[in-house]
Each structure stands twice: as structure tokens, then as C-alpha cells.
Write a structure and sequence with these properties.
Radius of gyration: 33 Å
Strand order of the largest sheet: 9-8-10-11-12-13
Distance between the termini: 109 Å
Number of helices: 25
Number of strands: 30
Low-confidence stretches: 682-694
Oligomer: single chain
Largest sheet: 6 strands, mixed
Shape: elongated
Strand content: 15-25%
Amino acid sequence: MKTVVSISLGPARLDYDLESEFLGQSIRVIRIGTDGSVDRAEAAIREWEAKADVIGLGMVQDHYQVGTHTITHEETQRLQQAVQSVPVTTGATLRSILQDWAVRHTQLELEECFNNAKVLFLNGQANYRPARVFNEYTENLFFADPVTQLGAPKMLTSLNQLENYAAGTGPIQSWNIGDTVGRLPVAKNVTDYVLRKGAQTADVIAARYNELEEMGLEELGGKTVLTSSISDERLKELGDRGVNVVIDYTPQIFNETIGVNVVEAMILAALERSPAEITHDDYLEIITSEGIEPRILYPSGYKRISRFAFVIHPLSQQYFRNSKPLDMVASYAPKTFMNTVEKVMAYSPPFVYSRVTGIKSPTGAEAEGWLITVGGTPKEIMAHSPEFTYRRLLAAARLAKRLGAQIMGLGAFTKVVGDAGLTVSKRAPLPITTGNSYSASGALWAAHEALKKLSLVEVGKNNKAKAKAMVVGATGSIGAVCARLLAKAVDEVYIVARESARLLALKESIMKETPEAQIHVTSNPNKYLREMDMVVTSTSGAGKRILDIMEVKPGCVITDVARPLDIPPEDVAKRPDVLVIESGEIELPGDVRMKNIGLPPKVAYACLAETIVLALEGRYDTYTVGREIEWEKVREIYQLGLKHGMKLASISGVNGVYTDEDFDRVRNLAMEKRGIKSADDNRGGKSKKAANAS
């Protein structure tokens, strides 16, 4: 039987004496903890060397290769030199393989979870190899080496900085300046603050368990932790602290928790070789044959949190007046003051308006994100070249990336300016979507529900409504998809736009997809308004009057997808017999928390909801950009939304949510104008006849 003795600087209370079959050999493993004493460890080596085939050194620092610089640790070297007659290992070679593999394995298993993640390394030099792997997925790397080793209140933020730090401070680190400075009360307070602040904003923390304990486990809530040798006791402790995912790169062969140095020592003992005689091919063969792989653990149950960002902007000067100082000044200053504010804000850098948390899908997936504001109103956006807005959106994308977002959505006017997201998606450092696929889906979803509630249109057995529908702005991205979907859902569709050639091409395209459709083209929406049961407006008119609401058929459902709205509140007020919907907003799943965006709690614009759905699904790629929207994506995002618990919010108009009484009122007024008796009138007539008969 081979004997492996692990001399550890860790606590003696974790000692064990185990036997196992490994690589065809019977191996006994003995752990001797020395409670941090190097002298006791050296004495234990002298005591056990004659009884051991291989000695492993636990809880010691490996000798690091950081860039072109090698860092040698004196205590580790001292203990290695104390072993004279048998092989000795810290597990460094196997650890480097397992650390790298753990990151790649998790990125694959958890569907690109490290994309753009903020990763904190409590010891970057010890984790230099996995840091290089993380850098393939994210640039948001933070290294606490200057904080923990030199007492400096500043973290490193790139591999290049870490390499320069290692080369420049290697000799100084051996003097243990950090330990000396760290004993000063003020310095310790600063160090603790910097570490805890870094941990709070990180998505992933890479560290040994003892390093996590020293920093404070209470900072680990909601995090993914890359570490090693996690026992059931430690896993429970991390779960109690709210850790989402634990990645343990140490394979566990026994019921007891062992370190990487023990596994590598067992390999050396079984093969009867020294560390220098073991090749990477040997390790690969052993890893594959023994089924060794990193462990992905969920101490609080399965949980995956995705991160998104979404760009919003003020729709009018009134949004600026929501700020009390500006509102007070505007009350006394001439209108030119607010005009000046509007112009100046268009040049302001992007900033975070709100953090969004608490989104939870029935699948268990979660999402959190940030609403990022750019300052241009639609008026200012239209007054500048598209490049002006592109620059601000790209600045917002860079901010989103620094925050850790994995996908970014464009909202309101930012999604229609220029080429509708194409240029931004090509130049942005993260995937982009305009949300137009879900906007189209939400618009028709709301219109369909409204038609059902009004009960003024007959729906056939095939769910096709015996109705006429019009799409104003049909050659736009959302309008075109609405026209394609309506061609399958109603008897006749009238498509309206100013560009005659594009309108004809759209009709031709729809007829190829739906040959039985009846499609009519016109550049004047008012020409056929009296015949329409449904109207979808999706223009970029920026507040210009699009249609004459006085020409609309009583009981018509108008879905206004445009932002700013195509139909102003004063027009809506003129026709109480018409139902005007402000597109289809979506109710988000979970206990959603975010600042007011002009909608009821938990309700989001469909374009924002699309960004969230993609995050929940782990689809971190550019989805909806450009003027042409694929109706297959409209259908797909609708299905994905249902999967993740998205619901059509209460149907809203310019005055808020429509109640059942509102639908009844619109229906009765419409029937009155059409000269049709309502059900209530019929019931009343029957009652009168019955009374006369009696």
C-alpha cells in the first residue's frame, strides 16, 4: 500500500486518515494540520518523511508565473527543501489544469454565464491562469493584490496591470509590508472597505475559502464563487450567506474533503514518479479515465442570474421638469429656459437612471439590470445627424459593459434613429436588440384582447377575425411585421406609408407569405378609416398628426405603437366611442423593483421586456436590429415570453388602465352610433313588454 502524507498549514481539527483504491493502487492518505505554523510543518515533515511515499504540502502558496515574472514563496520553498528522500508537491500543476477547466466547464454548462461578468480575484497572482481564461469572456477583471499585500486602497483592473505589478513589486512582497501596514487600525479599515466594496459590485469572486473568510462571507450574497476543497459544512455556510453558485475545482474522491495537493500526490504515488516526470498527457489521461471534473454546486438551489441594460431617454421637456430645481426655475423663467435645458441635455453623458432587480422566471432563471439614460428628446434626436445619437448610444453601451450587462436594449426613439440599431450593434462592445420584435407582438396581443373584450367583431373557428385592419407606417420595422401578422389574422389589411415603392414591395412580400390575404395599399390613412375595425399606428412622426380620429369607425380599436404617440390625448378625448391603446405593455414575472418609468409597478414596455426575455433565456446575441423584422422572431419572442412568465399587462390608454366599465362604455357608445341596440337595451325592451302584458 502506498502512503501519502499531506502536511498542511491549515487547522489540525480537519485531520484525517483514509484508505482508497486509486489508479489500480491501494493508497493511504494522512493529513497533518499545523494551524499555520511553518516550524510545526517542518517538524511534521521530519517525522513522517520516512513513512511516506509522497508528501503533499497543503495551504501553502504556489510559486507563481505571472506574465514573464516568477514569484517564489520562501515559506513554500523552505518546506519543499525540508523533504529529502521522497517526491513532494503543492499540487501546482494539477491545480493550474483544474482551475482553467473549471472556468471553461462552467461557461459551457451555465450558458455563457461569464460573458461580461465582473470578476474579483482576492489574489490575482495565485489565480493568474484562470484570470487569463476569464479574460476571454470579460474585460471586467479586478485584482485585490495591492490591497491585501501592500495595504494600498486601489485594485488592479487588467491582466497587463497585474503583470506589471508582479514584476515591479515581487521583491517587496516578500518583505510582508502588507502584514505590517495591515496592523494599523486606519489602514485595516480602508483595506476592509475596499475589499468589501469590490465584493459587493462583483458577479464572481475567485479565492481560497480562508481568503473569503478573512474578507467576510456576508459580502457573498448573490455571487458565484470559484474556490476549492468545499466540504458540506462550508457549502452550507456559503448557502446561509446567500451564495448562488459555488465552483469547486478540486475533485472529491473520498467522503472527506481533500485538497488538490493530495490528489496530485496520489497520482505521483500510484505512478511511482516525481513531479518532473509527469507530463500533461499523463494528467489528461488520468482526468478522463477517472471521470474527474470540477463541481458546480448550488448551495441555495439552482439559480442563474443574467444581466441586461436598457437605454431610455426623455420623451419631452416635461420629463426634465420632474426634477424639482428645474421645475421651480421653469415656473418663473421664460420658455426659452426649458428649450436651452433640452438642448444641453442632448449632449449629456449617459448615466444609470435605475437598477432593476427581482425579475424571476417560472423556470428559475433570474435577471437584473440597469436603465441607462441618454439625454436627447425626440425633437433633439431628430435635429441632429444619426451619428450624434450613435455616439451617445455607444457611450451607453460602454457604460453597460462596465456594469456587467450581457445584452443591451434600445428603447423609444433610440431604436428607430438612423438604421434602427444596425450601426450600433456593429460598433457596440456587447449584443444589441431594439425590442421591436416584442413590440410588434405586444401591439397585436393587446389589440386582439381589446377586440375580444369589445365583442364587436366576429371571430371564426380558425381564429381569423371577420374584420378590416389598417397599419399606418407599414414600411417601418414594427409596422411591416404587424402587417404580415394581421394578414393571417383578419379578412383584409390596408397598409399605409409615404414611400410608394416600399409599400408595393411590402405588399408583394406579404402575398408570397400569405397568398390568400387581401392587401390594399394607400398613402392616405383617412381615405378608408371609416371602414376599419382595427388600426395600428407605427410611425416616426415625432408628434405630428397622423390621422383624423373623427373619421374613425365607432368601436374601432387603435393600437398606438409609436413613441412619442401618434394620437395625442386631446384627439383621444374627442372619440369616447373608440378604444385607443398605447401599444402592448408587458407584466414582468417576480418581485420587480425599479424606478418609475411612467407605467404601473412590474409593467415594462415591450421593447424592454424583449431585452429581459433574452437575458432570462441566456440568448446573449444581437436579436432585433434594422428596419426589417423577421416575423419568425416575433413569434419566437412571444413564445419565449410565455415560457418565462411574461403576461400582457392591463390594457392602457392615455388616461391609464382600461377597466371593464371602460370597455362597456366604449361598446355601448359605439353600438349607439352604429344604430345597434345593446344587450342592455334588448333586456330593457323585453322587460317593458312583459310589464305591459301583465
